[in-house]
From TrEMBL:
Pfam families xrefs: PCMT (PF01135)
Domain of life: Bacteria
PANTHER family linked to this entry: PROTEIN-L-ISOASPARTATE O-METHYLTRANSFERASE, PROTEIN-L-ISOASPARTATE(D-ASPARTATE) O-METHYLTRANSFERASE
Entry's Gene Ontology BP terms: methylation
CDD domains, A to Z: AdoMet_MTases
EC identifiers of the protein: 2.1.1.77
Location (main, coarse): cytoplasm
Protein name: Protein-L-isoaspartate O-methyltransferase
GO molecular function, one term: protein-L-isoaspartate (D-aspartate) O-methyltransferase activity
């Protein structure tokens, strides 16, 4: 495994071992495996040295339940490298990190800005902030760790040349644009319909307006106040009606699965979905937006039926049809333009077709 350690070190210039807690969870093909450094030091070290995600907290630290919500991790080293490179961090820069987590990325940011630059990292979880502060201090890395809501940024250190965000975002806070008016804001961004799947977004800011194109798919823990939330109970209803929808079964599936959910979600702000059933049987697409619900029952050989809010069904069908009729364009053809109080999605080019969206 020495080879793997060399690989991660060579890739990022720093070993992540000093930043990891004694207990981590490694994701494997059969689920998460709990590794305790005191019990299995070799397996723990292999994981620390590997190019893999290591979960370090569940349910905001309330459980160790791997069926629960992972709420902190040491991110995938190769992805960290990709995001840092795309953020174009240079010596002497002033950088704001959102989501300190283990403190490892903060140390890498400091490596890049050098003695002449500075890094402030904001972490919402008091316990994690304290641990990261201690680890950075022990490693001799000069980073200012602040406990707070990163969605407010950190005004005391502004302006920043770069903002580097390591939690998933759905609504870009105006504070980041004010605090980094001319620079780069790097973040994982997703639509509500795309669920856990986010896209890398490097917003280049000029005079407080950020413009960027969606990049590769990533999965990041969501910012605390922007989590998608529990799906909850579905209201009972018996108003199912059979309808003719201008969508085939395969088209409905594609519109919410893989990258379809991300792109169709660009036209359906605040809308979440679930797809159930499968195989030979009927499938159901469940939709929810602003407290209203709708569902579509469909499947090869089944009559299509709908139930619930007619406006939500109409908006979903319109958004899905728009995407299908354009030949299912991929996320890389879209981007965001964000200014104070306004967020626009653009298609193909920032000055091309665009629409305002409120998330
Ligand atoms: C994927 S982890 C960050 C990984 C980290 N950069 C590292 O190197 O270990 C996401 C972190 O974002 C934090 N977080 C979530 N919402 C936040 C918010 N509103 N403000 C600041 N931090 C937040 C979580 O507590 C968690 O520690």
């Amino acid at each position: 495994m020495t080879g793997e350690l060399d690989l991660v070190r060579e890739m990022l210039g720093r070993d992540r071992t000093p930043f990891l807690p004694d207990v981590v969870w490694r994701s494997t093909a059969v689920g998460y495996v709990r590794l305790d450094r005191q019990v299995e030091p070799a397996a723990w070290q292999d994981a620390a040295d590997a190019d893999c995600v290591l979960v370090t907290q569940w349910d905001d630290g309330e459980t160790e339940d791997t069926e629960g919500l992972p709420t902190c991790s040491a991110s995938l080293p190769s992805l960290v490298e990709q995001m840092l490179d795309a953020t174009d961090i240079r010596e002497g820069h002033s950088v704001l990190e959102i989501g300190t987590g283990t403190g490892y990325t903060a140390a890498l940011l400091k490596d890049r800005v050098g003695d002449g630059g500075c890094v402030v990292s904001v972490e919402v979880d008091a316990g994690l902030a304290e641990l990261a502060r201690g680890r950075l201090r022990d490693a001799g890395v000069d980073v200012d760790v602040v406990r707070g809501d990163g969605l407010l940024g950190w005004g005391a250190g502004a302006p920043y040349d770069r903002v580097h965000v390591t939690c998933g975002i759905r609504r870009i806070p105006a504070a980041w644009l004010r605090q980094c008016p001319d620079g780069v804001i790097m973040l994982p961004w997703g639509t509500s319909l795309s669920g856990e799947r986010d896209r890398i977004l490097a917003l280049r800011t000029k005079n407080g307006v950020g413009v960027g194109r969606f990049g590769d798919e990533v999965g990041f823990m969501k910012a605390r106040s922007q989590r998608i939330g529990e799906w909850g109970d579905w209201p009972d209803g018996d108003d199912t009606v059979e309808v003719e929808l201008p969508l085939r079964a395969e088209e409905i599936e594609a519109s919410v699965e893989a990258y379809g959910g991300f792109v169709v979600g660009l036209q359906l702000p605040r809308t979440t979905c679930r797809l159930t059933g499968g195989g030979e049987g009927e499938r159901v697409l469940w939709l929810r937006r602003d407290g209203v619900h709708a569902s579509i029952g469909f499947g090869e050989g089944h009559r299509t039926s709908v139930e619930g809010d007619a406006g939500l069904i109409r908006d979903y069908v319109g958004a899905a049809r728009w995407w299908l009729d354009r030949g299912r364009p991929e996320p890389g053809r879209f981007g965001l333009a964000v200014g104070e109080g306004e967020q626009r999605v653009w298609f193909d080019a920032p000055d091309g077709e665009s629409w305002k969206v409120s998330w």
